[in-house]
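[recover] target loaded
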């Protein structure tokens, strides 16, 4: 209902012009001819009113600065067979996912889900994806960070984030635990909350255990940015989005990422440093 109200309000505010598309002329003539005859006119006025799109004011660069989604200018057109990224508000993103039966890990169904997740993550592009983000309530995560991705962010920023490349990881039924009490505050984003960022505090050192896509046990010890990605994706499996954990008053659109934080907000970086 709110979206319908907003749409109608936008239509009322759109500017009018006097040069309609030819395809609408007959429609307007049909509406105006009866009134014209009552006024003694041979034909209706030779114009009609149409809405023109409101001009957009946006000077963001094609490669966005420093972000969770890397700022790559990916093609947003849907590829054949590629699952959609589920957006915030869908119940699958706000409810706990189910564990994968270990006996099913090698099945065609689970392997297809993993393949779809990897393709969707790279297409987006992103550095991590959880199965609920493609509408599947199973405990599966994939993540990957590359030299190319990292090159799109300023070196001083990736250094502060302790961001280093790592190969593709596929983890089923992941269980995460912290390895130290060290934490850091940095902006995060999410493919399911596209176009926005918020400041989130995360542990700097974690351990994740689970199953690989081959069904064998896997253990990952991670620090820095990789640890942050793992925590972000594991949160998805518990029905938690980063906006549920972000520091209040730090939420912003990507284009405003470089604007200063409000008074009283904590500083970015390693906490206590």
């Amino acid at each position: 209902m709110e979206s319908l109200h907003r749409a109608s309000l936008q239509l009322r505010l759109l500017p009018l012009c006097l040069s309609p598309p030819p395809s609408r002329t007959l429609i307007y003539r049909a509406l105006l001819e009866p009134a014209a005859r009552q006024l003694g006119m041979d034909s209706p006025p030779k114009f009609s009113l149409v809405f023109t799109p409101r001009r957009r004011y946006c000077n963001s660069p094609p490669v966005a600065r420093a972000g969770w989604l890397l700022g790559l200018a990916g093609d947003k057109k849907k590829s054949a067979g590629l699952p959609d990224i589920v957006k915030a508000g869908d119940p699958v993103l706000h409810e706990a996912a189910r564990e994968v039966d270990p006996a099913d890990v090698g099945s065609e169904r689970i392997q297809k889900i993993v393949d779809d997740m990897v393709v969707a993550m790279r297409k987006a592009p992103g550095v991590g994806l959880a199965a609920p983000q493609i509408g599947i309530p199973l405990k599966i995560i994939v993540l990957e960070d590359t030299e190319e991705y990292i090159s799109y962010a300023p070196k001083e920023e990736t250094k502060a984030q302790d961001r280093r490349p790592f190969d593709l990881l596929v983890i089923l039924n992941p269980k995460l635990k912290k390895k130290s009490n060290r934490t850091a505050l940095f902006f995060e984003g999410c493919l399911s909350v596209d176009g926005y960022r918020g400041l989130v505090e995360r542990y700097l050192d974690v351990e994740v255990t689970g199953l690989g896509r081959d069904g064998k046990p896997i253990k990952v010890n991670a620090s820095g940015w990789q640890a942050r990605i793992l925590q972000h994706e594991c949160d998805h499996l518990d029905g938690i989005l980063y906006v549920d954990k972000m520091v209040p008053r730090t939420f912003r659109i990507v284009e405003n990422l470089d604007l200063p934080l409000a008074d009283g907000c904590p500083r970015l970086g390693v906490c206590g440093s």
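[recover] notes: DSSP finds six helices and eleven strands in the chain.
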